[in-house]
Amino acid sequence: MKKLILVTTTAYAALLAAPAQAESTFFTPAITGSTATARLDFSIVIPQVLFLRVGTSSGNAVTDGTVDALAFTVPAANVGDSTVIAGTGGDLTAGAVTVRAYGNGGNITINSGTTGALTTGNVGEVIPWSQINVVGAALGSTTAGFTNAAITHPAFNLAVGGGAGTATTLTATNKVVRVEGKWTYSYLNASAVAAGTYGGTIAKNGRITYTATQL
User: Fold this and answer.
1) Is 190 part of any domain?
2) How far is CA 164 from CA 110, 115, 116, 127, 157, in A?
């Protein structure tokens, strides 16, 4: 009995120490028409990702802290006369920015968020976000792997305290979204308002936050 226990334990230890090997088949004697087979099982694990770019970014798989600043300066002779004012700034210059989104989990929405009308910080001195026009268009050149087209800008929330706007839905194909385009901003200049700088800081409601949501 002692000998049997010793042999069994030794065999088990040898089994644990043996390196893992691929499957194999051995035939002997082999004759014409004999076959030997071996198999491998494969799996590929793809992580779910979500990416949104509005403005400057150094890549499509990075998180950058750069926030582009757009500015609209109204000539003195055109204050409140509805002359549309083009912007400066943005990664594409002249008030235009790159928009790029991708994900692999299904449809995606993009929404805008504000904290209220643009203000100088003085009571009653405000410019509503309805005075900011945004036009979507395709980029001048296409990035490989992306669909380059006009992306509808999510409408701003015009409530006194701002908030989330009206989301734009990006429709997936086989659960994948890979789209890009550009947004060009302008100031409609439809009303005469008090002199000053409206927005420009978070405290004066000068920041838009865009959010991509995986559905």
Assistant:
1) yes
2) 10, 9, 11, 18, 6
- Walking along the chain (215 residues) 10 residues at a time, the average pLDDT comes out as 35 44 81 91 96 94 93 98 98 98 98 98 97 98 97 97 98 98 98 97 98 97
Residue 108 domain flag: yes
Q: What is the extent of the structural domain holding 136?
A: 50-214
Element (H, E) at 2: helix 2-17
How far from each other are the two terminal CA atoms of the chain, in whole angstroms?
66
* CATH code (residue 101): 2.60.40
Collapsing DSSP to helix, strand or coil, 179 comes out as: strand
In this prediction the pTM is 0.84
Task: For residue 2, give every residue at least 6 positions away whose Cβ sits within 8 Å of its Cβ, in sequence order, or none.
Answer: none
- Is residue 80 within 8 Å of 188, Cβ to Cβ? no
What are the beta bridge partners of residue 179? Answer: 101, 147
Is residue 27 situated within a structural domain?
no
Question: What is the pLDDT at residue 27?
Answer: 82
Q: Tell me the C-alpha distance between 81 and 68, whole Å.
A: 28
Q: How far is CA 192 from CA 71, 80, 159, in A?
A: 18, 4, 21
Distance in angstroms (rounded) separating the CA atoms of residues 92 and 62: 19
Token duo for residue 20? 């893992």
With residues binned 3-state (H G I as helix, E B as strand, rest as coil), the percentages for the chain, rounded to 5, are 10, 30, 60
User: What is the count of structural domains for the chain?
Assistant: 1
Per DSSP, the three-state class of 110 is strand
Contact 99, 78 (CB under 8 A): no
